Amino acid sequence: MIALIVAKSTNNCIGKNGTIPWNLPEDLAFFKKITTGHTVIMGRKTWESLPPKYRPLPNRKNIVITTQKEYVVPEGVDIMHNISEIPNLYPKTKRFIIGGAQIYKETLAFADTLYITEVHMQVDHCDTFFPDIDMLPWKVVAQDEKEHFSIITYKRK
C-alpha cells in the first residue's frame, strides 16, 4: 500500500512560512496512530520543517527524498534521490507519503489510498499547496466529521 496522508485547508493550503497554519491535536493523533510502525516518505523541506525533537518521526521508518546528493540525515534515516523507486521500496509494507507539495504531486500516480484531513478554514497568504486532484478515480471509504475538520479516506477505484 502506498498512501498519501495530508491535512489541507479549503483552499488546499498545507503550509505557510514553513509551518502548518493550524493546531489540531486530534488530527496529529490520527497521523501518529495510522503511520506508527510503518514507513513515512517525505521531501527534504518537510523533513527540515519537523521540530528537531521529532526527527526522525519515532517508531516509523523515515525516508527523505532529496536531489541534493551530499545531503546528510541521522543514522537510521534513509535517503532517496529518485521518486520513481517508491513503488519498489519495501513493497510488502505500508508506505505513507507525508509531503511536501512537490512530493505529493509526483507520487499521486503511485498511491492507492488517500487520507485527507479537510480543515474547515481558508488560509490567507498560504505559500504551499496540495495539488488539485481528479477525484473521478477515487471513492470515499471512510469519513469522520469533527467540528473544525473532517478526515476522509479514499481508495482508488
What does this structure look like?
A hairpin with a 3-residue loop joins β9 (138-145) and β10. The strands form two sheets. This protein has an eight-stranded mixed β-sheet, sandwiched between helices. The protein has a two-stranded antiparallel sheet with strand order 2-8. It starts with a strand and ends with a strand. With 157 residues, it is α/β, with parallel strands linked by helices. The chain has helices at 25-35, 44-49, 101-107; strands at residues 2-9, 13-15, 39-43, 61-65, 78-80, 95-97, 113-119, 128-129, 138-145, 149-156. The chain is globular, with a radius of gyration of 15 Å. It has a single domain, classed as Dihydrofolate Reductase, subunit A. It contains three helices and ten strands, in the order ββαβαβββαββββ. The model has no long low-confidence stretch (mean pLDDT 96).
Short description:
The chain has 157 residues and is α/β, with parallel strands linked by helices. Helices cover 15% and strands 33% of the residues.
Strand content: 25-35%
Cα shape: globular
The profile of the biggest β sheet is: 8 strands, mixed
CATH overall fold name: Dihydrofolate Reductase, subunit A
Indicate the percent of residues in helices.
10-25%
- CATH C-level class is Alpha Beta
CATH superfamily: Dihydrofolate Reductase, subunit A
Quote the average pLDDT.
Answer: 96
Indicate the radius of gyration in whole angstroms.
Answer: 15 Å
* SSE string, helices as H and strands as E: EEHEHEEEHEEEE
Cross-sheet strand order for the largest sheet = 5-4-3-6-1-7-10-9
CATH architecture: 3-Layer(aba) Sandwich
Q: Count the helices. How many? A: 3
Q: Would you tell me the structural class of the helices and strands?
A: alpha/beta
Distance between the termini: 14 Å
Number of structural units classed as domains: 1
How many strands appear in the DSSP assignment? 10
Unreliable segments (pLDDT under 50, ≥5 consecutive)?
none
